Amino acid sequence: MNSQPVYNLDEIIKNNLDSEQWKQFKRIHYGRIDHGELQLKPSTIEESKKNGFEVAAFSVDAAKEVRTTNIVKVGLIQHSIVLPTNEPIVAQKRAVFDKVEKIIQSAAAEGVQILCLQETWYMPFFLCTREKQKWEEFAECPKQGQSTQFLRKLAKKYNMVIVSPILEKDEGVWWNTAIVIDADGEYMGKHRKNHLPSVGSFSETPYYAPGNTGHPVFQTKFAKIAVNICYGRHHALNWLMFALNGAEIVFNPAATISEFGESFWGIEARNAAIANGYFCCSINRVGTERFTTTTNQDITRSYYGSSYVTAPNGCRTPGLSRDKDGLLIVKMDLNLCRQVKDHWGFPMTSRLELYAKELRDKSL
Ligand SMILES: NC(=O)NCCC(=O)O
């Protein structure tokens, strides 16, 4: 018997149901009985074991129709930091780069075409420390920054679109930003986090400014994509605007802990995918991060991973684990976006003019 505690919800349920109950649970909870699990290459399994990360791969098909299929393979990476947070910042970054590069190599070997990393992926999420200056070196220029240079090379090498959520510094002002690199390695643009939390230990307003980039959608080589950064997932209109601007896939790179609504982690992005007719890809970091402030206060934060993907028809993949580095691969047919919109008629029945009027009246 496995003596390890089971942390993953999917595992807890699976291990406690008989096969018929499990089948019915999958139908009702995940939206389909068959997860569409894809076989991984033996070399990927070997690499993941060697480098200590899990890999899971699923497919989401669309119905056959007049249009040719529009299939794209998407990868999400969740991971912990590597070095203690009091190590030199250059070393902390380098160590995460090395870890993530190995996972990206496996994603490339599996044919991933669009990859998204977690929120501020190369640093500890130090925003709970209430200290700013000592972390300055983590803030980067979006186009020239070290992480962008590092990922541009990989994007080009692997013909892969990469979404890289960073801590941006522009003329002395910090922003929580996601940059998009196209499959030729060229920088396409950026989106700055619109909604900044100011709740409990997530007090981000003293660090960076609220986004001023609207709701951009990037026509990458493989799909029209957008990024709704972490706390933005609690804002329904934020999701809506990416849909109105034509997104087929919206990524939600996050850094969130149990106390901040683990019970609705599986709900908000899933609801957004259903309501807006696009694929939602949710990514959360894992691991425990410890900080000692200059006033000798010890702060500890643990993240619960559980990255997952929802299709516009509401089907979702199982989540990655709550505590391990991981790569989630989903092969998706983007034709499903249009098919679901036609079926349910949500855009057709949306009555946006009604809301626009009321919103205008209320904000006067
Ligand atoms: N990173 C971030 O915005 N966290 C806020 C807490 C949450 O929304 O989960």
Please characterize this protein's 3D structure.
By secondary structure, the chain is an alpha/beta fold. The chain folds into two domains: 34 residues, no CATH class; 321 residues, Carbon-nitrogen hydrolase (Nitrilase/N-carbamoyl-D-aminoacid amidohydrolase), CATH 3.60.110.10. The strands form four sheets. Strands 1-16-2-3-4-5-6 form a seven-stranded mixed β-sheet, with helices on both faces. Strands 9-10-11-12-15 form a five-stranded mixed β-sheet. Strands 7-8 form a two-stranded antiparallel sheet. Strand 4 and strand 5 form a beta hairpin. Helix 3 packs antiparallel against helix 4 and helix 4 runs parallel beside helix 5. The radius of gyration is 20 Å and the shape is globular. The structure holds N-(aminocarbonyl)-beta-alanine. It comes from Chrysodeixis includens.
Largest β-sheet summary: 7 strands, mixed
CATH superfamily of the largest domain: Carbon-nitrogen hydrolase
Count of the separate structural domains: 2
Q: Give me the count of strands.
A: 16
Question: Uncertain segments of ≥5 residues (pLDDT<50)?
Answer: none
Structural class: alpha/beta
Q: Main sheet: which strands, in order across?
A: 1-16-2-3-4-5-6
CATH overall fold name of the largest domain = Nitrilase/N-carbamoyl-D-aminoacid amidohydrolase
| N-C termini distance | 64 Å
Question: What share of the residues does DSSP label as strand, in percent?
Answer: 15-25%
Shape: globular
Radius of gyration (CA) equals: 20 Å
With helices defined by DSSP (H or I, 4 residues minimum), what is the helix count?
9
The average pLDDT score comes to 96
Name the bound molecules.
N-(aminocarbonyl)-beta-alanine
* Reported CATH architecture of the largest domain: 4-Layer Sandwich
- As a percent range, the share of helical residues equals 25-40%
Q: What is the CATH level 1 assignment of the largest domain?
A: Alpha Beta
Q: H/E order of the elements? A: HHHEEHEHEEEEEEEHEHEEEEEHH
